[in-house]
Amino acid sequence: MKNTNSLRLIFLTIISLIVSLSSCKKDYYVDGGVHDPNYNGTILDFLKSRPELFDTLVKVIELANYSSLLNDPNANVTFFAPTSQSISKSMTSLNSQLFFRGQDTVLKVEQVSPEVWRKYLSRYIYKEKYLLKDYPQIDTSDMLAYPGQGYLSIDGDPLNIGTFYNDVRTKNSAGVEQIVKYAGYRQILINYSNPVATSDIQPKNGVIHVLQSFRHSFGFYTFDFTSDAINKGITY
Predict the structure, then answer these.
(1) Distance, CA of 106 to CA of 108 (rounded, Å)
(2) Measured between alpha carbons, how far is residue 224 from residues 30, 96, 106, 118, 120 in Å?
(3) Predicted local confidence at residue 36, as pLDDT
(4) pLDDT mean over 126-145
(5) Which percentage of the chain shows pLDDT scores above 70?
(6) Environment class of 95 (CB within 10 Å of its CB; exposed 0-12, middle 13-18, buried 19+)
(7) Which residues contact 187 (CB under 8 A, 6 or more apart)?
(8) Is the pLDDT of residue 21 over 60?
(9) pLDDT at residue 109 above 70?
(10) Average pLDDT of every residue of the chain
(11) CA 117, CA 63: separation in Å to the nearest integer?
């Protein structure tokens, strides 16, 4: 049984690495800008239109029973979209925990309880539409001055969200490098350390902010996600 587990874990790790390498190229948009932010469809329609980024996320949305909400043209919600790579990272962590417990690893998101998917996916959904410009400034090196703000997710979980103002490096006439504080591009941070790759995608029923794949693991707290998944029972 452990030999089988080991082979599965190695296989899943290799797949995760392949996905990570291929997805890094898709984090080319960093400051949240798109030429045309409007999308003629719902949030769910947009996610389905980009299977290379969100195919696993769409499955998780269905398991969590959030398809109706994100496909409702009158929903008006803000959705921080984790990519399939982010979900894969948490699934790999789950399999590591299962392996060390001597349990069979999992190959499909359907093997995790829908209750767990709903609990953690709800942290990405917020009532009303919040664009990048609507979030207060956050500076993780000076939280007293720029703390961002706490927001309640659709199920009542509090997470800090703010807009991070990057610095600009320039050189004066003498060639000396100077730093212009807060003059660079802006990007949303959620839960202090999870940056948005592109923001303000605007379907008919709200707004989507896509999280950077390489900086985010699904659930925000991977240990909590893996523990809940194990405690709620894995389906084999």
Answers:
(1) 6
(2) 28, 14, 17, 14, 10
(3) 81
(4) 97
(5) 85
(6) buried
(7) 30, 31, 32, 132, 163, 164, 166, 195, 196, 199
(8) no
(9) yes
(10) 88
(11) 7
Q: What is the pLDDT of residue 174?
A: 77
Q: Tokens representing 19?
A: 């996905």
Give the pair of three-digit tokens for residue 27.
């984090």
Which carries the bigger pLDDT value, residue 92 or residue 170? Answer: 92
Residue 149 dihedral angles phi and psi, to the nearest 5°: -160, 150
Residue 63 has pLDDT above 60, yes or no: yes
How many Å apart are CA 70 and CA 138, to the nearest integer? 28
Q: Tokens 């996320």 label which residue?
A: 57
Which residue, among 40, 92, 85, 120, has the nearest Cα to 210 in the 3D structure?
85
Q: Residue 14: which of 6, 3, 24, 4 has the closest Cα?
A: 6
Side-chain-side CA neighbours of 188 within 13 Å: the count stands at 28
**What is the per-residue pLDDT for 215?**
92
Provide the whole-model pTM.
0.84
Nearest-angstrom CA–CA distance, 209 and 148: 17
Q: Are the C-beta atoms of residues 169 and 179 closer than 8 Å to each other?
A: yes
Whether the Cβ atoms of residue 157 and residue 123 lie closer than 8 Å to each other? yes
Give the end-to-end CA distance of the chain in Å, rounded to a whole number. 14
Mean pLDDT of all residues in 88-113:
96
